[in-house]
């Protein structure tokens, strides 16, 4: 029987340690006051999720709900504390702006390095090289170290390499917020083509209209738990509602404003 599941996240939990004191002075003061020096914080709490081959899923939730952490665990860059993740096929993750690009290497060198990390051999990278450079529009900066690139150029190159690896599963985190509108449109068109070719996509973005256009399913995270998994419309409505609640709370108290940023 053909495998129809591209990603299986099973009962994943992830905790972080929050350190309250950074300096020795601060630690001493807290110790004298018998305050805790650190806390364990649960960023993902027993999350289970199955994504079918060819599905385009939006991962939404207010700031700090655990979206990036979940993408990092699915991509394999971070292990879960509990639970398991299985991904079928080649995965490409655009998890942070410029993810995977080495600042001291040139654009050209990064194409080969990043291509290899994402599973392309040298012959495949060579065959796609011109297309990667063309799509990224980095032109004369190709032989400059990428630390001299603007954030838009960084993102264009990272996106171009990732999309050219023809991943079976494409994980995208907020990168579409960077860069100029024209390039953004080009990326979105590319993602539509990618979807139409039957590949799987999991995307985090704060632009609700974009998510509605690209995805049919939405997973809403709140405090590291799945609050909704289903129709994108309902997920988008939930997000807009929660954002409104946060804004209202922020208007009432400056501390809430700080927490709700
Ligand atoms: N390496 C880390 N160490 C400690 N805490 C972390 C770490 N990474 C994330 N967190 C915390 O885990 C929580 C979830 O973070 P995460 O980045 O996954 O949320 P998010 O939903 O992607 O948020 P945003 O929309 O702001 O990007 C946050 O409270 C964050 O501060």
TrEMBL record:
Q: Does the keyword Signal apply?
A: no
Q: Which PANTHER family match?
A: TEICHOIC ACIDS EXPORT ATP-BINDING PROTEIN TAGH
The record's listing under CDD domains reads:
ABC_KpsT_Wzt
**Can the keyword Nucleotide-binding be found in this entry's annotation?**
yes
| Record's protein name | ABC-2 type transport system ATP-binding protein
* Span of domain ABC transporter: 29-248
Q: Which family does it belong to?
A: Belongs to the ABC transporter superfamily.
Q: Which residues form a coiled coil?
A: none
Organism listed in the record = Actinomadura hallensis
Alphabetical UniProt keywords: ATP-binding, Nucleotide-binding, Transport
MF GO annotations: ABC-type transporter activity; ATP binding; ATP hydrolysis activity
Cellular component GO terms held in the UniProt record: membrane
Segments spanning the bilayer are none
